[in-house]
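fyi for ur records
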Amino acid sequence: MNRLLRNLLLPALAAFSMNAAAASADRPNIVFIYGDDIGYGDFSCYGATAVQTPNVDRLAREGLRFTSGYCSSATCTPSRYSVLTGEYAFRKQGTGVLPGDAALIIEPGRVTLPAIFKDAGYRTAAIGKWHLGLGDGQREVDWNGDIKPGPLEVGFDYSFIMAATGDRVPCVYVENHRVVGLVAGDPISVSYKKSFAGEPDGVTDRAALRMNWSHGHNQAVVNGIGRIGYMKGGQAALWHDEDMADVFVKHALDFIEREKDRPFFLYFCTQDIHVPRVPNPRFVGQTTMGARGDAIVEFDYCVGEILKKLDQLKLAGNTLVILSSDNGPVLDDGYVDGANEKLGAHKPAGPFRGGKYSRFEAGTRVPFIVRWPGKVQPGVSEAMVGQVDFPATFAALTGQKPARATMSDSVNVLPALLGESKTGRDHIVEYAQEGGVSLRAGDWKFIPPGLVREKLGPWKSYQIPEPGLLFDLAADPGETKDVAAENPGKVRELAARLEQIRNAGNPPAEAQPSGKKRPGKKQQ
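which gave:
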């Protein structure tokens, strides 16, 4: 290269190199660790003492721990739908808790969280619990052939999932479009309508079960545990409950290893704390709370393995890790596993009322931690943030515009996630299939008339009378004193606002910006 050409090219190459480095630094890897049935009070960094969660605590210590972080529903399927679509699940029929043979409830081709990342050049993976349906609904899913549409048709490049939940059939892993480990001559059959002749079931074979059921969970028997739904065949493909956490972690680590040289989005959804709670033997007895407490320890192990891999590959500094849960806690959710009897002084919901299935705070206020070394200042944030906002927020992070036509409920809360704003959202919609929606606006919480559940299983449900319940969460975070009678104007205001959100579907106001600008990006 002659001197003149070198003098012309070197500055340009240097500028290109710096711009590429800046682009990489502003386009972090994203790891979303999505727990299942984990309550606000289930981690030691949120006040638990009966169980220690050192890896989750490390994430909180090195990141931002939110005290007003919310999922969008008090049950799993609708929360997961909202995370991936940016739309409240109550807007769409068929987004309740799905059976294992349900059709895919996210339309292929619509804008989704993984599609946003793909458009920004990311590799994307869904690993763990899916529970958003598989197949087109025009015909029954053929578990012995190609299973689609599914995660790959809504924006993921790779998937290794369970179809629904640990307590629902089919009890097999699905990698991309195929059941893992299926052998010729032993096809899988699944039915949520009728049993298969000659197959054991949880009613007639109850005495032989290794885990008794308290309600439901008494149809097909897999690994000695009664499930919801019936299945037969596929013996070589059946999962082993005790190994599930290790299997999912291995595939998550393999994905990170494969994609370490380019931006990636990992949607890592654990099963551990959801029933049936069958932790690996090395975690059994780690707490005094029985299977549920030991499953929390197992979840913490999974978090530690992810963090360890990021450290080993020197990716931690350019990886934004988010940890949260799909809904609040539950104890007896269908199996006799000692969750109530061995609870002791542990408070899964922390200071809040209710839990899974409930419109009270503990149904949707969940652990919520964000870590991005060098970008997110460690600490505690009271900003209100919701998982439904992930699509709009990460569209902003990657320099894209939110698709308002399909994710009108999602707003950009990036300043709050990065710790630049102390406000986040100005309101949160809380949804439970039994009873519908509630509204938190600032420190006020309004629960309209209708059914509401509390306790953590077995539940207590009662009818909220007119005009609904009103709580001042600043003075009464446990929702113990209804102040609706003293504040009729506030009740009318919040009822009208909730009705507008529910019926009109207008996009909510943007989160308040901090006024700061992120390096290399225009303020969104």
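Residues 428-504 form a domain with the Arylsulfatase, C-terminal domain fold (CATH 3.30.1120.10). thats all i got for now
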